[in-house]
């Protein structure tokens, strides 16, 4: 029996990330090679023509799994009946702008999109926020979409997670698929903490810890962390544009693992609603190690946390608490 199509919303769909993401979804990279999809693409009115061009290309690519395309500048039409929402659209920080300016622009965008999802999305819609500040945008969305379960609202730190895997694989000259269980703790910002304390590598003689194989704590606690934290800026410097292909690919990874499950013994990083695990203040959207089964994520519990990690985890939580206060001040 053929499966019913899943409706997937991509906001900001005419932008760079959207342009990289929609063909991946249409190819089955996000939801699996046997899952038909109907794409809902939303963008702002000035991008309407460009959005229509993306729709034409999707039709021209003749993707077998793509069962329909909605391309619109109307938020209600875009959100109607969607099962998965990937929120890529947001207001980017421009030169000379204060954080508060960016925050207030994004607060108003996420407030209106949250209301539309609240009223028109399918029940149990899963939401992934990509646009920065991703953790706090997700929190605002949660605030204005109270009927969407809090466990269904997440933000993207899988890009940072994948960057960390990539750095370890390059350093050790191993296949990236043999590295697992790196963790991104906290905010999708330069305070995030990429942690390899629990990460392992598959070797011919069994699984070994990354720390043992790298055997250079100065690198692991210094250059490795800053490289992952600053990778986005390095890509902007090189490409003169922010990361799009890698962001789109990691958004697919995030949703695929969430919907289809993580491999046994493997955990991934997702920005999720904190329940107070690891002494992270409850009520923040914070990146934790999670496993997924049956469409639900669960925070991995009981990992030992050393003093170095504790400080890093607390610092990024502090930044998120400040961001939350700033966002709420924009609401009043």
TrEMBL record:
Its EC number is 1.1.1.37. It catalyses: (S)-malate + NAD(+) = oxaloacetate + NADH + H(+). One of its GO terms (biological process) is malate metabolic process. It is an enzyme of class 1 (oxidoreductase). NAD(+) binds at residues 12-18, 43, 106, 130-132. GO terms for molecular function: L-malate dehydrogenase (NAD+) activity. Residues 157-325 form the Lactate/malate dehydrogenase C-terminal domain. It holds the Pfam family Ldh_1_C. Residues 6-153 form the Lactate/malate dehydrogenase N-terminal domain. Substrate binds at residues 93, 99, 132, 163. It comes from the Eukaryota. The active site is at 188 (proton acceptor). Keywords: NAD, Oxidoreductase, Tricarboxylic acid cycle. NCBIfam families: MalateDH-SF1, MDH_euk_cyt, PRK05442.1. Belongs to the LDH/MDH superfamily. MDH type 2 family. This is Malate dehydrogenase. It comes from Asparagus officinalis (Garden asparagus). The lineage of its organism: Eukaryota, Viridiplantae, Streptophyta, Embryophyta, Tracheophyta.
């Amino acid at each position: 029996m053929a499966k019913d199509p899943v409706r997937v919303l991509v906001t900001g769909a005419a932008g760079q990330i959207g342009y990289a993401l929609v063909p991946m979804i249409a190819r089955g990279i996000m939801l699996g090679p046997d899952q038909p999809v109907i794409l809902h693409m939303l963008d702002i009115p000035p991008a309407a023509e460009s959005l229509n061009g993306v729709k034409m290309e999707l039709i021209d690519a003749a993707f077998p799994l793509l069962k329909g395309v909605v391309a619109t500048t109307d938020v209600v039409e875009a959100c109607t009946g969607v099962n998965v929402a990937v929120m890529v659209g947001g207001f980017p920080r421009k030169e000379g702008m204060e954080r508060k300016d960016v925050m207030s622009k994004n607060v108003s965008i996420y407030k209106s999109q949250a209301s539309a999802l609240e009223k028109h999305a399918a029940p149990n819609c899963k939401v992934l926020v990509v646009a920065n500040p991703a953790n706090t945008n997700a929190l605002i969305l949660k605030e204005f979409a109270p009927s969407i379960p809090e466990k269904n609202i997440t933000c993207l730190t899988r890009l940072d997670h994948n960057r960390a895997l990539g750095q370890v694989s390059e350093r050790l000259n191993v296949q990236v698929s043999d590295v697992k269980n790196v963790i991104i703790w906290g905010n999708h910002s330069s305070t995030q903490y990429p942690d390899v304390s629990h990460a392992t590598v598959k070797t011919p003689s069994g699984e070994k810890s990354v720390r043992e194989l790298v055997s250079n704590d100065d690198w692991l606690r210094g250059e490795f962390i800053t490289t992952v934290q600053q990778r986005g800026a390095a890509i902007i410097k090189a490409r003169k544009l922010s990361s799009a292909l890698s962001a789109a690919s990691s958004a697919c990874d995030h949703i695929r693992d969430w919907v289809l499950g993580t491999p046994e013994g493997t955990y991934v990083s997702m920005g999720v609603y904190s329940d107070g695990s690891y002494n992270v203040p409850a009520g923040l959207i914070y990146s934790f190690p999670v496993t997924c089964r049956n469409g639900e994520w669960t925070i991995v519990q009981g990992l030992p946390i050393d003093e170095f990690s504790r400080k890093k985890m607390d610092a990024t939580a502090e930044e998120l608490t400040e961001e939350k206060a700033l966002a709420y001040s924009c609401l009043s």
